[in-house]
Model the fold of this input.
Amino acid sequence: KTAPGLEPALKLDAFLVEGCTSNLWLVPAVDQGVCRFRCDADSLITKGIASLVCEFYDAAPPQEVAATDADFLSAVGITQHLSPNRRNGLTNLVGKIRAFGRAAAHS
Done:
């Protein structure tokens, strides 16, 4: 509930993460050589998990973002308690974040 959201102007189709049961937006950026990730979702569960993932990757260099998987989610048992649709959305979120890191590393 306390995770910061996005202002309505950023809740664009271009930032939607496909495959989620609820709407999930990811706004990536590079600032001073590190990746920055902001997110928001219609569902509190989705928003909470997405916020954890964004915090995990936030402020890391693009090469590190591209090379790092979010294995900690299954290690702490989060993924086991998600519906298949939410797991799919989470996988897509991590994939989108890592793809952004790869693109930023090559630019």
